[in-house]
Design brief:
The complex is a heterodimer. By secondary structure, chain A is mainly alpha-helical. Chain A has helices at residues 5-22, 27-47, 70-101, 113-146; one strand at residues 2-4. Helix content of chain A is 68%, strand content 2%. Chain B is mainly alpha-helical. Among the domains of chain B are: 312-437 and 458-543, no CATH class; 590-600 and 612-716, no CATH class; 741-980, no CATH class. Classes of the chains: A mainly alpha, B mainly alpha. At the A-B interface, strand 1, helix 1, helix 2, helix 3 and helix 4 of A face helix 7, helix 20, helix 24, helix 25 and helix 26 of B. Strand 1 (2-4) of chain A pairs parallel with strand 3 of chain B, so a sheet runs across the interface. Chain A: It is found in: Cell membrane.
């Protein structure tokens, strides 16, 4: 299978830059990274159709030697449209989180440190409550077992 | 049987609603169902006891040989009678036990009913996987029922403990079940038992299955969950933890014993564990002061006894085991119900606080006395008959040279003596007159604190109101079946006879003076003696260290697992989203990097470029991508990303992919518009939070991913050996799909199934976008001019010019304006030029989009491209005329477009089914039309129309959410700001 070196390099660059942007905290940046990675992925699939050639539209009922493979194109066509859908969805998320959090000029950063602290705290509370439950069962059983009926005379 | 099961679960779903109307009376109503199933089972007696079976079978997963097969033989019949009979009685008891203000009564009733159905399914299932399924459902239901008092710590803890222990056993059992069914080549339990496979794997699987059975039936070392489970309401203890669920393990062993009792390891495991459980349970029972806990440890002890009996594997022992199972279910359920009544009426179940109850409640005492006597094995009750049978069977086995027979005999006689002792102590504790307690009562409540009681506040007497009915019926059954031992015995013999080997024992009240009778007498005598010296014995018990403390081990393990999980979570989950992404990407690079490093097949014919222009386009795209990554302004970043997208368009166009080029161009345009719609609200600059160090790290990760993906691309190219499917697909497209645009024919015909799924993804995405914006409720239609009249008469009015509805010349306005919605905009936001342009271009654009839709089959285009173009036309109208213009242009809600489109697509798919073809088969008729030329119209065209509509729907939904709704929220915010200012 032959391919164009240019396209492979372009794909690699787009992946690299896409990932670089995606690792930031701003949701807009993440979306931009997503778009770059999306385009790069499409390019990867596209590469699999080989060298440039004629469109897979049959004139006269037969395909020539130079007609390109239609399968990657079909895969990509729906991918392009779904990419759009997901982009719109992320945009709605960005807007919503900005609106709800009332971030104003601070923009759309995903919070990092506080959230984890809260999570850890919640986990701790959860553990504590489990431990308490276990302790209650144990107390219930042991208290009953440790005492005798000596207090009662038949 | 299947019908009965369906009814059980159907009624269980309805029960919470019925409870709302009926209160506690709902129990009497739902009790009818287990009662009916009891009658149904009883009606099968003639068939079953003749040695016949009742079977029902519905294929379920034929690939795995799993079917919903049910089979009622004698054993299943016996257990079905027990679970439905006791179930019905317990539910009747519940209707008196609970009051209408009991919290979560509906849930409780539904769970109890579902449990009865599950147990019935468990004992009648013949497919081993179906049996296992019911087995696990009982664990879950037991968890929910034990945890009924959700606000109590001990309830929650006990419920979780029971769940963890039984599902742990269940997991071991699942492995055993899979091994066994594979080794035996069948999933039918009856087949496996009739023709048992052999070998090391079978031995392992049987041990695993026994582990499951032991955990379910609370045998050592899993016994500790059962006493803790007494935190449940008493009816649950009586039903699940005496009569039904804990019997599941016993049932399973009884089911497997005829075929697998001679498996290596079976006998020692069953006898040792059974005897140990029997003695340990009874020992601990003697130390309890809470009547319910006393019974619970007694149950543990009896379950050990039962395990020895049903697992021993001789014909006589099987008979004895079946009888013992029945007798235990009857007397233990009775005793629990009695304790429930005592608890209710006296407000305590601590035997140190109860006194003189026997004189006050003679009927209750008599009921309990019969049950206790049966538990101790006193003639003429069923418990006596069964115990005699066990002793005889063990003596028989021992004399036949089986050493385990003697071991088991000694163990069970000792256990029986203890049983007599704790039985006596139970009755004494509950009913006897105790002067010390009476004196204490006279002086006020000075006794030790009562343990938490099920419903301690309710002191009113229930005796006259039928709560006694259930225990009395159960205890009378104990008496009657004891007297009718012979007919009962001959009924159960058809199960016992399935066990290979000799044996001619018959159940009877009187077998003459023989060793078994002597042993019974010894047990009763020793037990009574033990009861007489109970205070001294209690001191001895306290002095001895605890032999087995399995619950402590359990707690240690559970705590360790909790701590480990917490530590791993804290270790793995820190640093937020970027950190997680980094982890994922590094793993990705590592795995794929290693894989590509091992690769040896690189592409053979690599060219620098396909055509010179490619290099320039690629360079432009690369620069745009890098700049997009570095851009600090949102809009700049978006436009730069858009530039890479348009670069893709050029590459596609030069590469022989016109459809892709068309679609990508349209998508890029729509994306940029939507981006701008949202970003206009956000601050212009993207905040910079990442320190330079982080930036270097990100750069390195990005580079690593990029290089890896480049290598992956090379590898994939090199790995590809065969040529493409191109020519074959082209043939298919022309001959089968009647189109010459291969890509489009594949989308709507050859790969239509995928396209349909992708359409549903789009619908989900559109709905997601809308629901994120319209939080309070989804408008069915896009807002039109009329809708806004009220608002525009309000505070917003001043910002409007030339309102068509409030001015008198409104009708004329409709004719003298380019875009109706444009009137709603503030003047500085209006552009007449734009309005004119949009008005002139809109209809041609829609026409072109329809042309693209229909031409797509033969030329570049299709539903996706057409839909996007139409969407773009809508966008233009919105941009020029504002959000009301959108409704005026297309007075249909996006929901209708999305739903209609999906309906067309799925309709085409299903339509061919009705016409006798495979799903999504297409049909065609051809003809020549003016202007469009030769046209082939087929079902795939209808499918494409569906695609077209869905795409328009998505664009419209996005537009009215991110466009219109954002406008509205902005207007609202502005109004608020004005009002406060």
């Amino acid at each position: 299978m032959s391919a164009s070196l240019t396209l492979v390099i372009l794909m690699a660059i787009m992946y690299g830059t896409g990932v670089y942007v995606m690792l930031e905290k701003s949701l807009t940046r993440i979306l931009i990274g997503f778009l770059l990675v999306g385009n790069a992925t499409n390019l990867l699939i596209f590469l699999m159709s080989g060298r440039a050639g004629d469109a897979p539209i049959i004139a006269g009922g037969a395909t020539g030697e130079t007609t390109v493979d239609p399968v990657p194109q079909v895969l990509m066509l729906t991918a392009i449209v779904i990419n759009f859908g997901v982009t719109a969805f992320i945009l709605a998320l960005i807007y919503r989180s900005w609106w709800l959090a009332n971030l104003g000029d601070e923009g759309d950063d995903v919070t990092v440190d506080d959230e984890d602290a809260i999570e850890a705290e919640e986990a701790g509370v959860y553990h504590a409550s489990l431990d308490e439950d276990d302790e209650a069962v144990r107390a219930q059983l042991e208290e009953a077992a440790d005492q005798t009926d000596d207090g009662v005379h038949p | 049987m299947i019908f009965a099961l369906l009814t059980f679960f159907g009624l269980a779903v309805l029960t919470p609603f019925l409870t709302r109307a009926l209160g506690t009376r709902v129990f009497s109503l739902v009790a009818l169902l287990p009662a009916a199933v009891f009658v149904y089972t009883a009606l099968q007696s003639a068939t079953v006891l003749d040695g016949g079976v009742v079977t029902e079978k519905v294929p379920w997963i034929p690939q795995l040989d799993i079917s919903l097969s049910f089979r009622m033989d004698t054993l299943a019949w016996l257990l079905a009678l027990v679970v439905t009979g006791v179930g019905a009685l317990v539910m009747i008891y519940c209707s008196r036990y609970f009051s209408n203000d009991e919290p979560s009564l509906g849930r409780f009733a539904a769970l109890l009913l579902a449990f009865a159905g599950t147990m019935f399914g468990l004992v009648t299932a013949d497919d081993i996987y179906i049996m296992f399924m019911f087995w696990e459902i009982t664990s879950v239901l037991s968890y929910l029922l034990i945890g009924h008092y959700t606000e109590r710590k001990e309830s929650r803890g006990a419920a979780l403990q029971a769940l963890l222990v039984t599902t742990f056993g269940g997991l071991a059992m699942l492995v055993g079940v899979v091994l066994l069914s594979v080794a035996g080549g069948s999933t039918s339990i009856s087949t496996l038992v009739a023709d048992p496979p052999e070998g090391a794997i079978v031995t392992v699987s049987i041990i695993l299955i026994l582990a499951g059975a032991f955990s379910k039936s609370a045998l050592v070392p899993f016994h500790f969950w059962l006493p803790a489970a007494m935190a449940a309401p008493t009816p649950v203890s009586a039903y699940l933890h005496a009569a039904a669920m804990v019997k599941a393990g016993i049932y399973l062993v009884a089911r497997f014993a005829p075929g697998f009792a001679d498996t290596p390891g079976w006998m020692p495991v069953v006898v040792i564990v059974g005897v140990a459980t029997m003695i340990l349970g009874a020992w601990r029972s003697l130390r309890q002061n809470d009547l319910k806990l006393l019974l619970a440890f007694g149950t543990v002890s009896q379950l050990g006894f039962l395990m020895v009996a049903v697992g021993f594997g001789t014909r006589d022992m099987a008979l004895a085991g079946a009888a013992l199972l029945l007798s235990h279910a009857l007397f233990k359920a009775t005793l629990f119900l009695v304790v429930g009544i005592i608890d209710h009426d006296e407000g305590t179940r601590d035997l140190r606080q109860l006194s003189g109850l026997g004189r006050r409640r003679p009927v209750l005492a008599a009921t309990a006395l019969l049950a206790v006597a049966s538990m101790s094995g006193i003639p003429p009750l069923l418990g006596y008959v069964a115990k005699e049978a066990v002793f005889s069977g063990l003596i028989e086995a021992g004399s036949a040279g089986d050493a385990w027979g003697w071991v088991a005999l000694v163990g069970t006689v000792i256990g029986s003596a203890f049983t007599v002792a704790y039985s006596a102590r139970f009755f004494w504790g509950a009913f006897a007159a105790k002067p010390a307690v009476a004196a204490a009562d006279g002086g006020g409540a000075s006794g030790p604190a009562a343990p938490a009681t099920a419903a301690g506040e309710h002191h009113e007497s229930h005796a006259s109101r039928g709560i006694l009915a259930a225990p009395i019926i159960l205890t009378l059954a104990t008496l009657a079946l004891g007297l009718l031992a012979s007919p009962l015995g001959s009924a159960l013999e058809s199960y016992a006879d399935t066990v290979p080997g000799e044996g001619d024992y018959h159940l009877a009240l009187w077998h003459g003076f023989e060793l078994a009778l002597g042993l019974s007498a010894v047990a009763i005598g020793a037990g009574s003696g033990l009861f007489a010296v109970r205070r001294g014995f209690a001191r001895v018990q306290r002095a001895l260290p605890p032999v087995v403390d399995a619950s402590r081990t359990y707690w240690t393990i559970v705590h360790a697992v909790d701590r480990l999980a917490a530590r791993i979570t804290v270790f793995a989950q820190r640093g937020g989203l970027p950190q997680y992404l980094t982890t994922i990407l590094l793993v990705f690079v590592l795995c794929l990097g290693v894989a590509t490093a091992l690769n040896r097949s690189w592409p053979t014919q690599l060219v620098a470029w396909d055509y010179p222009a490619q290099v320039f386009v690629a360079a432009a795209m690369a620069i745009a991508a890098v700049m997009a990554a570095r851009a600090t302004h949102r809009l700049a970043a978006v436009l730069l990303v858009g530039a890479t997208g348009f670069g893709m368009v050029v590459l596609f166009a030069f590469h022989g992919a016109p459809d892709l080029a068309l679609t990508q161009a349209l998508v890029e345009t729509v994306t940029i518009v939507v981006f701008v719609l949202v970003l206009r609200r956000l601050p212009r600059k993207i905040a910079q939070h990442n320190r330079p160090v982080r930036r270097r790290r990100r750069g390195m990760i990005g580079a690593a991913v990029g290089v890896t993906m480049g290598l992956v691309g090379f590898t994939a190219l090199g790995a590809r050996q065969a040529g493409g499917l191109g020519p074959e697909l082209a043939r298919l497209a022309v001959e089968e799909g009647h189109g010459s645009n291969v890509v489009n024919v594949m989308l709507v015909d050859i790969r239509a199934w995928d396209t349909m799924n992708e359409l549903s993804v789009l619908v989900v995405v559109a709905t997601g976008v809308a629901s994120l914006l319209f939080v309070t409720g989804r408008n069915v239609t896009v807002p039109r001019l009329g809708d806004s009249r009220k608002r525009r008469q309000g505070s917003e009015r001043g910002r409007l010019v030339g309102d068509p509805h409030t001015q008198h010349d409104a009708p004329d306005d409709r004719q003298h304006t380019w875009l109706l919605g444009g009137r709603t905009l503030v003047p500085e936001n209006r552009s007449l030029m734009l309005e004119v342009l949009v008005r002139l271009l809109f209809h041609p654009a829609i026409l072109v989009s329809i042309y693209l839709l229909f031409a797509g089959h033969t030329l570049p285009g299709g539903g996706f491209a057409g839909g996007l173009l139409a969407g773009l036309a809508l966008i233009a109208r919105y941009l020029a005329g504002g959000r009301f213009e959108l409704g005026e242009t297309l007075p249909v809600g996006p929901g209708i477009l999305l739903g209609g489109g999906l309906l067309l697509a799925t309709g085409t798919a299903l339509g061919s089914l009705f016409l006798g073809g495979e799903i999504l088969t297409s049909a065609y008729f051809e003809g020549d039309l003016p202007l469009l030329g030769h046209l082939s119209f087929g079902t795939s065209t209808i499918f494409d129309i569906g695609v077209y509509l869905v795409v328009i729907g998505v664009v419209l939904d996005v537009l009215r959410s991110l466009g219109g709704e954002v406008d509205r929220q902005q207007a609202e915010a502005d109004e608020k700001a004005e009002a406060t200012a």
